[in-house]
Design goal:
alpha/beta, Rossmann fold, single chain, nine-stranded mixed beta sheet, six-stranded mixed beta sheet, binds flavin-adenine dinucleotide, globular
Length: 337
């Protein structure tokens, strides 16, 4: 394809694809999403989700994307009934001294280290900050509605290569998550399996986390009518079936943080595969084997929601840098097919 008004094809309709597609529509581009899984069946739909840069690299880029996303979530929280985004206080507890603020503290202006008197028994350090909590099924539906309402197009198709995606447009934006193993032949991308349990909310209104628990992560994410209790992080585990014993152990860990959870009615348990990438998020301009320009945006690990708006802005800048008069050149060498 070749055009003075190039069509951008976005591969993927998880949080990365939808957010990027929305930004590209705002740039005035014709945008078409192609995905084999609908939004509600993506990893993104299983995220907890909070604004927090967990299991993601490289820190210097992740910090910028995290910081850029924060004000967008803050403004989305003003319409929480439609967006599913609310702001909550988050308390992070640590069993050994941190030796200072976390690496991403510059992205959280109200982050405050806790004094000894504010820490529960057994904890040596901690901090609190305001955090966006996102109801992902509702939020993804909101993003998709906005994309379609602004003239975006959504196609369901399974792609066997990125050059196949180029049949749908003049520029490819690749937001395929774990699908990069196949679509980009990128073995550096691998799953980190996460399981959580949803229970009735017994009145909890702040996020509470202990990532130093000897039995595994413990975090409580209060949503409006329920709490998500996490979690697990199993490297290179592909099984998407939740286990009852895993959920029982998650509940025990979280009940240590808040005893009200002991009797809370269980509602559902879910598993998702975080798209972690050795070397960190791949966000860069590339040329496919047939010469089509491609911007990659995948490998967001445990922080795809947190980084989403910052990454979408950077992708949009790269697409803008290509100009509007894109001629698909003859097949180039060295590109990703
Ligand atoms: C349990 C759990 C908790 C999490 N909690 C948080 C959190 O609190 N905060 C946070 O920021 N992040 C969190 N994450 C991480 C977050 O969910 C991911 O980083 C994010 O969802 C990645 O989004 P994505 O759009 O890049 O990928 P996905 O959501 O995986 O979407 C990929 C898209 O690409 C499409 N695709 C792939 N291959 C092909 C192909 N061959 N052909 C066509 N389409 C294809 C798929 O259909 C899909 O639409 C959590 C993850 C898990 C599992």
């Amino acid at each position: 394809m070749s055009a003075a008004d190039p069509t951008v094809v976005v591969v993927g309709c998880g949080v990365s694809g939808l957010t990027t597609a929305l930004r590209l529509r705002r740039l005035g581009r014709t945008v078409r999403i192609v995905a084999d899984r609908p939004a509600e069946r993506t990893t993104s739909a299983v995220a907890g989700a909070t604004w927090f840069p967990y299991k993601v690299d490289p820190p210097h880029r992740a910090l910028g994307w995290t910081a850029a996303s924060r004000p967008v979530f803050e403004s989305l929280a003003a319409s929480s009934e439609t967006t599913g985004v609310v702001l909550r206080t988050c308390v992070m507890l640590h069993r050994s001294p941190l030796g200072g603020a976390p690496w991403w503290a510059d992205a959280a202006p109200d982050l405050a280290l806790l004094g000894r008197a504010q820490l529960p028994p057994g904890f040596a350090d901690g901090y609190s900050f305001t955090q966006a909590v996102i109801d992902m099924p509702m939020y993804l539906a909101y993003l998709l509605d906005r994309f379609l309402a602004h003239g975006g197009e959504l196609l369901h198709a399974r792609l066997s290569s990125l050059t196949e995606a180029a049949r749908y447009g003049d520029v490819v934006v690749n937001c395929c998550g774990l699908g990069a193993r196949e679509l980009c032949d990128d073995p550096a991308t691998y799953p980190v399996r996460g399981q959580w349990l949803r229970v009735d909310n017994p009145g909890i209104d702040r996020v509470l986390a202990d990532f130093d628990h000897p039995d595994g992560d413990a975090y409580i994410i209060p949503h409006r009518h329920s709490c998500i209790l996490g979690g697990t992080a199993d490297e290179n585990a592909w099984d998407e079936t939740p286990g009852d014993e895993v959920s029982a152990r998650i509940r025990r860990r979280c009940t240590e943080l808040d005893p009200r959870l002991a009797g809370a009615r269980a509602l559902e348990q879910r598993v998702g595969l975080r798209p972690v990438r050795r070397g960190g998020v791949r966000l860069e301009l590339d040329t496919l084997a047939d010469g089509t320009p491609c911007v990659h945006n995948y490998g967001h690990g445990g922080a795809g929601v947190t980084l989403s708006w910052g990454c979408a802005d950077e992708v949009t800048d790269l697409v803008r840098s290509l100009g509007t008069d894109i001629d698909t050149p003859p097949a180039a060498t060295g590109g990703t097919s």
